[in-house]
Amino acid sequence: MNQGFETLAIHAGQEADPHTGAVVPPIYAVSTYKQDGVGGLRAGYEYSRSANPTRTALEEALAAVEGGVRGLAFASGLAAEDTLLRTVCKPGDHVVIPDDAYGGTYRLFSRVLQEWGVSFDPVPLGDLDAVRAAVRPETKAVWVETPTNPLLNVADIAALADVAHDGGAVLVVDNTFASPYLQQPLSLGADAVVHSTTKYVGGHSDVVGGALVTRSADLGERLAYHQNAMGAVAGPFDSWLTLRGLKTLGVRMDRHCDNAERVVDLLLSHPKVVQVLYPGLPEHPGHEVAAKQMRRFGGMVSFRVEGGEEAAVEICNRAKLFTLGESLGGVESLIEHPGRMTHASAAGSPLEVPADLVRLSVGIETVDDLLADLSEALG
Ligand SMILES: Cc1ncc(COP(=O)(O)O)c(C=O)c1O
Fold first, then answer.
1. Interval 113-142: pLDDT, tens
2. Are residues 191 and 268 in the same domain?
3. Positive or negative, the Cα torsion across 69, 73, 76, 78?
4. Residues 80/194, Cβ–Cβ less than 8 Å
5. pLDDT digits (tens, 9 = 90+) for 5-40
C-alpha cells in the first residue's frame, strides 16, 4: 500500500519496540552488542558505528519520506556531504557545483576536497548548456542545491539529471531548503539527496545532523560502507531528536509556507525593500520550475534593501522576534546577514553574496507578531 507523507514520517521504521511495546523507538545509548557465539549477531547489530537501532529507525524513516531505498544518518550535513563526495570521487575527478550554494559546501570543495585532488567548477545551474559544457570525462557528480542558500535560485532537477547521466555523472541534490515534504528529488531522477537535518527535518534548533538518501541500493551500499569506514555517524540521542522532529515535518512546513507568504506580501509593499527573493513569486526566474517540482515554495525568504550593507545589518540588529542567528528551518523565526554570517566563507569567490542581502527563516509563530516585528525592524 502506498502511504501518505505524514503516515510515513510517523510510522516508517518506527514499529512498536518488540520487547516493551514502546510506541517510540528508544534511545539505544550503547556502543557494543552481545553476540550469540562468535559471529552470531542478534538482529544484525555488533557495534554502534556500524549500526545502532535508534539510528536505523531514523534512516528507514528518511528513506521512506524521500521515496528512496536507503537512508543514512550523519553527525552533520557536511559530514554527509564529505562522505558522499569521497565515495563517488577519487583524486583526479571533477564535480560541477552551483554558482550559488551554502557557503560551507563551497568551503568543503574549495578548501578541503580540492587539496585532495578533486577539482570543481561553479556553474549557473539555470543554464543547461553551461552545465553540459562543464561536464567532462572526469566529472563524477553534478551538485545541485534548490532552492539555494541564500539567493533562493531554483534549478530544474529533472533536466539536470538528464545532463548528468548523459555525461556519466551522478546527480546529487541538497534538499535542505525544500525538505522532503515540499520536494522529492529522487522521483525527478536524482541519484542521491543530501540534507542538513539540522534544519527543517529536525525543525527545533536543538540538534545538528545530516542525511543521505539514495535511489539505488548499489549506491546506498557503497555509501553505507564509507559511513562505517569514515565514521561520521549520528549518535543515538541526536537520531532520536531528529526522528521526533521528522514526525511533524508536514504540518510545520505548511505553516512555514503560510507565514512566509504573508512576510513576502509585507516586504513587497515596503519602500525600503528593493527586491524580494522567493520562488513563489510569479516574477521569480525559477517560479515555473519551482511550481512544477515543489509542493509549495518554502519558509525561506531573502530580500535586498535600500542603503546597502549598513542598512541590511541594521535591520538584522533591530529585529527582536526574528532572532539574529545562523541556521534556519526551526520553529522560531531567524534573521541574518549572509555576507557577514553564513556566507562569509564565500567572500571573494564566485559564490559571494550581495552585501545588501538579508535572509529570513520564517518560523511558525503567530504571523501577525512576525509582521509587526519585521515592520519595526525595517523602520
Ligand atoms: C543548504 C545547506 N546544506 C548543507 C548545510 C550543512 O549542514 P550542517 O550545518 O548540518 O553541517 C547547510 C548548513 O547551513 C545548508 O544550509
1. 999 999 999 999 999 999 999 999 999 999
2. no
3. negative
4. yes
5. 999 999 999 999 988 999 999 999 999 999 999 988
289 and 324 part of one domain: yes
Mutate to test the pocket of ligand 1, among 74, 76, 102, 146 (most ligand atoms within 8 A of CB): 102
Return the amino acid letter for 213: V
Residue 2 Cα to ligand 1 middle (Å): 31
Number of domains, the chain: 2
User: How is residue 304 written as a grid cell?
Assistant: 535586498
- Ligand 1, atom 8, lies closest to the CA of 77
* CA atoms 277, 279, 281, 282: torsion sign: positive
Model pTM score: 0.97
CATH of the domain at 208: 3.40.640.10
Q: Tell me which residue range forms the domain holding 263.
A: 250-378
For residue 76 and ligand 1, the question of a CB distance below 6 A is answered with: yes
Q: Is 59 helix (H, G, I), strand (E, B) or coil?
A: helix
Give buried/exposed letters for 237-263 (b at 16+ CB in 10 A, else e): ebbbbbbbbbbbbbebbbbbbebbbeb
> Alpha-carbon distance 340 to 337, whole Å?
6
Per-residue pLDDT tens over the stretch 355-371: 999 999 999 999 999 99
> All 3 cell numbers of residue 225?
560502507
| Residue 74 near residue 234 (C-beta atoms within 8 A) | yes
**If you take atom 10 of ligand 1, which residue's CA is the nearest one?**
77
